[in-house]
Design goal:
globular, 182 residues, single chain, 9% helix, mainly beta
Length: 182
């Protein structure tokens, strides 16, 4: 796990300098049978071509009642292709989740699509499967997401999204994302 943390730290610092864009995300998480959470995320993305990108990011989730904190550090790659204006993608990622008493690695697979509605507005949807490497960590989830992205300018985009998360956690999230291209 320490090797993964060192690799992630190096990737994060290199990504900040080499990134083509940065995204900031806020989520309000309605957790079923437990306290609600607030989520904050940052992701740097490097586009190697029109059909392949890599990203590195961090995520922090904070419990609203007890302020318990969960942190994730994640690195991913996304191949994509466009057919008749519809962009199809499949993000593959791995990362490390840490809480006060636990630390483990996980992976995720997230196919999705983006359909332009106008030159500035797009409908986005995806399905993510995420689980820990190994057993007993309680981190297996399936997330269905749908939302809209709006280009404010050539370099600025805002998006809203709804996530339905099921599995070891049952929650519904609303997200607001701001992205800036360089």
């Amino acid at each position: 796990m320490k090797k993964l943390a060192i690799i992630f730290a190096a990737a994060l610092s290199m990504s900040a300098a080499m990134a083509d864009s940065v995204s900031l995300e806020y989520q309000s998480q309605d957790v079923k049978g437990s306290q609600d959470n607030k989520f904050y995320g940052m992701r740097y993305t490097k586009n190697f071509s029109d059909s392949f990108s890599a990203d590195v990011g961090t995520q922090t989730t904070i419990g609203m009642n007890d302020s318990k904190t969960t942190n994730r550090a994640e690195i991913g790659v996304t191949p994509s292709m466009t057919f008749s204006g519809v962009k199809l993608s499949a993000r593959l990622a791995t990362g490390e989740k840490s809480t006060l008493n636990n630390k483990f690695s996980y992976y995720s697979i997230q196919p999705g699509f983006s359909v332009p509605i106008t030159s500035s507005l797009a409908l986005n949807a995806s399905y993510r499967y995420r689980t820990a490497y190994g057993e007993g960590h309680g981190d297996k989830t399936r997330t269905q997401s749908a939302g809209f992205g709006y280009k404010l300018s050539k370099v600025d985009t805002v998006a809203v999204r709804y996530d339905r998360v099921r599995g070891d956690v049952q929650q519904n999230n609303t997200a607001l994302v701001y992205s800036r291209a360089f």
